[in-house]
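Reopening: structure tokens for the flavin-adenine dinucleotide complex, inputs below.
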Amino acid sequence: MSTSHTKAVEQFDAVIVGAGPGGEVAAIRLRGQGLRVALIERELIGGECGYWACVPSKTLLRVTTAVSEVRHIAGLKPPPIDWGAVSGYRDYMVRDFDDRQQVQEYEQKGITFIRGEAHLKGPGRLEVAKRIVETPHIIIATGSQPRIPAIEGLEQAGYWTNRQATAFTQVPESVVILGGSAQSVELGQMFRRFGAAVTLIERGSYLLRREEPELGTLLADYLREDGVVVELKKEAVRVEVEADGTRVVHLNDGTQARGRHIIVATGRAPRTYFLGLEEAGVEVTEHGIRVDEYCRAAPGIWAVGDVTGIAKFTHVAQYQARVAADDILGKPHPAKYNAVPRVVFSDPEIGAVGLTAEQARTQGLEVVTAAVDFARTLARPSTYGKNINGRLGLIADKKRGVLVGAWGIGPEAGEWIHLPVQAIHAATPVSTLRDMIVQFPTFSESFFYALQQLDV
Ligand SMILES: Cc1cc2nc3c(=O)[nH]c(=O)nc-3n(C[C@H](O)[C@H](O)[C@H](O)COP(=O)(O)OP(=O)(O)OC[C@H]3O[C@@H](n4cnc5c(N)ncnc54)[C@H](O)[C@@H]3O)c2cc1C
Ligand SMILES: NC(=O)c1ccc[n+]([C@@H]2O[C@H](COP(=O)([O-])OP(=O)(O)OC[C@H]3O[C@@H](n4cnc5c(N)ncnc54)[C@H](O)[C@@H]3O)[C@@H](O)[C@H]2O)c1
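Re-run output (same inputs, fresh job):
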């Protein structure tokens, strides 16, 4: 019998913790099959992606890319940037940090939305906002947060993460960015093109450490052409603030970088600390919640998205959400990650999928590669504008006669990289791909020419 001290227990078929891209897709898919679903979110529906990551950064980058595109076209002059209008559109795209309409839409769908931070309280039981919910199926979709390196003076000096770096109201005069991967490259080029002086500090020997090294080298050249100072093989060891607010970042080679703000973009850590996961039998490593190929983390618990640390992309969070939801619905199919697209929205864009040549060799494959230089091979670059170039590389397993990886840099790479994405996903034989007809003059023709070169 319940007393005034005992909380009423609410029962659901499934409870999803975190309403980022992963949590949203899982909730809608399960509700679509008639399950009683609760969706718990401690901040805003849409997660990091919707407010402080993909959406604002791509909205802002589109402006600087469009202006730059004009520079390449004969007879056009770059228009001035109206920052008020730009930031107004960014604010519209992040819904002015207001998700009331989303809450209503979920309720109309019959999903119970609960605002608050969820804590696991035993098998199938969660506490949130002074409510107790029970369910046989919990999906953890709590995302990731910035990994802050231990650098003397950094905490005292203060720093920006992706949150401040996508929600800023005035373009700073200068920034120093720590890290040299997707976040830093996108933010660095964006700030530079909005007029800030930018220094980017990466401890590795090339940018985009998970990609084909050639991509990082080409990208560094493009960033330097924009005026970004790219410092490779360097690390920050100490930070101090001068009287006028300038942050001075001392590097391990005795040099320094100076800026009004420091942006920390040195990777992201899983958001797991408050959930009580270990007690529930979930294994948590520094990369995230360990899951099997069905996104199962423990009996009655699934995990999807950044919190798994498998591949921190919105489309992967959404894919894993479909995998976990289908498992719960009794239609299991294992997750496959061999054809995940990885796009960096720099200018020119970077697209990649599958293995690098080095990774393929490490796996013992009989690796053959081919690469195509756009300006030398295609008609599209010169019809697109002046001084347009790009490159596409393919990596194949000669023994199986299929592609296992691809990388590209050039205008719209984020679109045409999906040709190899589909080929790798479907394991289409190279001999079949070679017979494909590709529209003239497009950047996609590079795929056709690279295929002809492959020794498969
Ligand atoms: C600057 C930047 C740009 C990016 N750009 C892209 C891009 O262009 N394309 C792309 O694919 N990826 C991009 N990413 C990565 C992308 O943002 C993430 O992969 C994606 O947000 C992961 O989705 P998720 O659902 O796993 O987590 P999140 O989006 O982090 O959402 C998790 C949600 O869970 C909530 N939560 C956490 N703990 C609890 C709790 N205990 N109780 C209740 N709620 C909780 C959080 O408040 C959050 O809303 C970018 C990342 C950054 C930092
Ligand atoms: N377009 C996109 O899809 C997109 C854009 C931005 C971010 N993301 C995702 O967000 C996640 C986080 O991105 P990220 O770029 O922060 O992380 P990352 O883990 O990809 O890269 C971090 C980089 O910081 C460097 N680094 C770490 N500590 C350092 C230090 N003390 N000094 C100098 N360099 C240091 C590392 O060598 C590495 O190159 C990624 O997994 C990425 O997939 C995706």
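The chain has a mean pLDDT of 97. The two ends are 72 Å apart (CA to CA). Marking as resolved unless the reporter disagrees.
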